[in-house]
Amino acid sequence: MALRPLPPSVDEALQTVHDELLEVDDGELPDYIPPLAKVDPRQFGLAVCTPDGGFTATGDHDVAFSVQSISKVFSLALALVDRGLDGVLEHVGVEPSGESFNAISLEEGTGRPDNPLINAGAMVTSSLVKADSAEERFDRIRAMLSASAGRELEVDENVFEQELEVADHNRALAHFMRSAGSLTADVDETLEVYLRQCAVLVTAGDLAVMAATLAAGGRNPLTDERVFSSDVARHVLTVMVTCGMYDASGEWMLRVGSPAKSGVSGGIITASPGQFGLGLFSPPLDEQGNSVRAVQACERLAERFSWHTLALPEDRRLPVELEDGDSETVSGGDSA
Ligand code: DON
Fold first, then answer.
1. Across 174-183, average pLDDT
2. 154 CA from centroid of ligand 1 (Å)
3. Measured from the CB, is residue 289 less than 6 Å from ligand 1?
4. Ligand 1 near 160 CB (within 6 A)
5. Per-residue pLDDT for 316 more than 90?
6. Is the model's pLDDT at 320 over the cut of 60?
7. Which domains does the chain have, with CATH numbers?
8. What is the whole-number distance in angstroms between the Cα of residue 283 and the centre of ligand 1?
C-alpha cells in the first residue's frame, strides 16, 4: 500500500495488544456457515489507517476472509447515495433492535425492519440500490466496497454458495418482509445480492482503509477518491453508533466509544471522524456474534488513546497530526 507510516507509539500499541490477546481462547466459531467453522481460530490481525494516509498493521492483517455483515455499512452508504436519507428511512428504521442480528424485527404498522445493520434491514437496503438487474445491483455494491478499500475486491464463491444452501432463515425473513410490504424486490434476487455482498473477501488492512474512508467523510485516504459525501458518511456512522454491534452496541459505546460494525467471520471496523479507521480480524465470537479478541483489543486501545467520541478534545491522546510520515504529534494526555 502506498501509505505513510504512523508514529512508533501506534505500532507499539497495536503490537502490544496483539501479543497480549493472542492467547485468549474464549469464543466460538460460527457453525451455521460451513466454511466459517473451518478457519484457524488463532488468526488475529489489526490495522489502522488515518484520513491523511497513515497506515500500520500487525499480525494476520493480510489474511483474506469474507466481509459478512460489515458489508451492510457500505450497501447502506450506496442506498443513501441513490435514494437519499428520506428515501431510505421510508423502507427501514434506524433504531436498535435489542435482538440478535437475524431476528424478525419489523415495525408494527409499516413492516419496516428496525435498522439497516440487522439481516432484515440489510436485505432491504441492498434492494434499494438502483440497478436494472440483480447482477448490476451486486456489481454496484461490490464497486462501493472496492472503492472504499482502495482496491478491487473479489467474491469467495465457495462461501457464497455454501451460505446460499443454508439460507432458509434469511429467505424466510425476506418472504416475511415481502408479505409485510417492506420488501418489494424479488426474494431470490434479494437473497442472492445480499449473500454475495457478505462473501466479498477483505483483509484487516482493507477494513482499516474502509473505516478510514468513513472517518475521512467519504474520501478514501489511499486513492484520494471521493467515494460518498460527508453527509452519507455521517449518516452511516450514526447508525453504526446505535446498531453496529447488535445488542452489545450500548456496552460497546460505553467501553470503546466509536462507531463500529462487526461481522460473523470475526471482522470489526471502527472509525473516529477525522482521526482514524481501525480494521480487526479474529474469528471466535462472543454470544452477541462479535469477535472476542477484536472487542477486547478495541477496549484496550480506546482506553490507551482515550478516543471516545464523547470525550473532551483535550482528554484525547490520539496522534492527530503527522508530519513527513514519522513525526509524532499528540493532543492532550501523556501516554500516546
Ligand atoms: O446473513 C448472515 O447470516 C451472514 N451472511 C452475515 C451475518 C453477519 O455477519 C452478522 N454478524 N455478526
1. 92
2. 18
3. yes
4. no
5. no
6. no
7. 8-68+202-329 (3.40.710.10), 69-198 (3.40.710.10)
8. 13
263 lines ligand 1 (CB under 6 A): yes
Q: Which atom of ligand 1 is nearest to the CA of 70?
A: 9
Ligand 1 centroid–CA 322 distance in Å is: 37
What sign results for the dihedral spanned by CA atoms 214, 219, 220, 222?
negative
CA distance 60 to 282: 9
Q: Which atom of ligand 1 is nearest to the CA of 246?
A: 12
pTM for this prediction: 0.93
Q: Tell me what the pLDDT averaged over the chain comes to.
A: 92
Q: Sorting pLDDT into bands at 50, 70 and 90, what band is 321?
A: very low
Q: For ligand 1, say whether the CB of 101 is within 6 Å of any of its atoms.
A: yes
Cα separation of 102 and 72, whole Å? 13
**Cell numbers at 116, concatenated:** 439497516
List pLDDT tens digits, range 75-86: 999 999 999 999
